[in-house]
Amino acid sequence: MAAPATFSIVTFQRKPGHWRAAITPNDRSGIFILGITVASFVTQDDFPSEADANRAAEQLIKTL
After folding, report:
1. What pLDDT does 38 receive?
2. Which residue range is the domain that position 20 belongs to?
3. Residue 17, by phi and psi: left (phi above 0), alpha (psi -120 to 50) or beta?
4. Residue 16: left (phi > 0), alpha (psi -120 to 50), or beta?
5. Cβ-contact 33, 1 below 8 angstroms
6. Quick check: 62 and 4 in contact, CB under 8 A?
7. Handedness of CA 37, 42, 59, 29 (dihedral sign)
8. Closest among 13, 30, 29 to 21, alpha carbons compared
């Protein structure tokens, strides 16, 4: 389980009613997934509100 304090979450609206969240590690060196350095990643699905996208990002961080 990753510590939520080690990540920044930015929510954005792709189009009206379609929200996603970008998750970036606070450590600028990035994280490694299958040998590739990842600077940030985005929630897979669209959400109807900014709050829902933020909650999904927080859940995603907890699963890391």
Report:
1. 64
2. 4-63
3. left
4. beta
5. no
6. yes
7. positive
8. 13
Question: The pTM is what?
Answer: 0.75
Report the domain count for the chain: 1
| Residue 24: per-residue pLDDT | 87
Residue 25 CA neighbour count, 13 Å, CB half: 13
pLDDT by residue, tens only, the chain of 64 residues: 677 788 899 999 999 999 999 998 877 655 555 666 667 889 989 999 999 999 999 998 888 7
**Cα–Cα distances in Å, from 54 out to 29, 37, 41, 47, 60?**
23, 23, 13, 9, 10
